[in-house]
Amino acid sequence: MRLKAPLGRGVKLLLRLAVSLALLVALLHAIGWSNVVHTLAGADPGWAALGLLLAVLANTACAWRWRALVRWLRHEVAWPWAWVAYQRGVALNAVLPGATVGGDVWRAWALQRTGLDWPRASASVLLDRISGLWGLALLGGGCAVGALLADGTALRLTLAPGGRGATAAAVGVAVLVLAWLPRALLRWGAARSGGRHPWWGWWTMLAQHEPLRHWRQQLLASVGAQAVTVAALWAAALAVGAPLAWWWLAPAAVPIFVAAALPVGLGGWGTREAASAAVLAWLGVPAAQAVGMSLLFGAYALLQAPLGLLPLPRPPSGA
Looking at the domain assignment, is residue 139 inside a domain? Predict the structure, then answer.
């Protein structure tokens, strides 16, 4: 039995690696290997370096958001510990199968070792991922409203004449509802569970521990972190010669980032590139530039991986 678990993990790793390679090979073959290589070879080093710095800044904002979530759960960890722990999780996500799963499990385990019980430790990581997705949807939706009102044809939208205003209004209402939804869910969940089930005690705790203040923190941190992440993607786009405006890229980044987080393949490779080619075609970006931009953006995570080798600061003795 001892041999089966490592063997199973090895097979799963190979399968996910095969999925990523198959997607990349098929995509590069369809586009033309030489086109993508030429695009990457001509990448502007200044824009590429700026994208890397923005990616590090975005992960720093995400680390702050995660620490704020831990505080919302009435547990304290020092900022240096949270930053290094988050960077280590990013490094594991970049090299382990399952996109964002491996590093997240490690973060929950490390947080538990600081004295937080397992339900709250795992909930903090899960909520951190949901908060990131929430911020991405709010940012993309908000930018889409502005884009629709400014120039509906720029997104190649097939709307009836005069329909842009109605569509923008509908998206705007959806964004406002989504922004307020977490507070409503907390109140509903606390009333439904009443703290009866031990594992769901963290939900009641969130609803009772200054929910308005922490909700604002998560709103600002999540939207801000995603805005910087989109800026890193935008810098990668400019590096490969794709003249995309940041506010047009924000709505397009939603399916791209979601595809990269799917638990298939390795580190988001393949799924992210396929989504980039499909989505950015709507913005008139050639496939070679879209895939080149995505590959460069994916390289940012690999280049940040050495930060995960930093020693993890010793957590405070009392939590």
Answer: yes
How many CB atoms lie under 10 A from the CB of residue 302? Answer: 13
Q: Which residue has the tokens 């709250």?
A: 120
* Position 18 confidence tier, pLDDT thresholds 50, 70, 90: confident
Tokens of 298: 């994916």
What values do phi and psi take at 235, rounded to 5? -65, -40
pTM of the model: 0.85
Neighbours of 269 (CB within 10 A): 23
Question: What CA–CA distance (Å, rounded) separates 264 from 299?
Answer: 18
Question: Considering only 93-97, 115-119, 312-316, which range has the smallest mean pLDDT?
Answer: 93-97
Furthest CA-CA distance within the chain: 66
Share of the chain above pLDDT 90, in %: 45
Domain-embedded: residue 294 = yes
Q: State which residues form the domain around 76.
A: 45-309
Helix axes 164-193, 201-208, angle to 10 degrees: 110
CA distance linking residue 83 with residue 284, whole number of Å: 38
Using alpha carbons, list the distances in angstroms from residue 169 to 149, 175, 265, 310: 9, 10, 37, 47
What does the pLDDT average to over 24-42?
88
Query: Structural domain tally of the chain?
Result: 1
Contacts of 286 (CB under 8 A, 6+ apart): 242
* DSSP-derived secondary structure for 193-228: HTT-SGGGHHHHHHHHS-HHHHHHHHHHHHHHHHHH
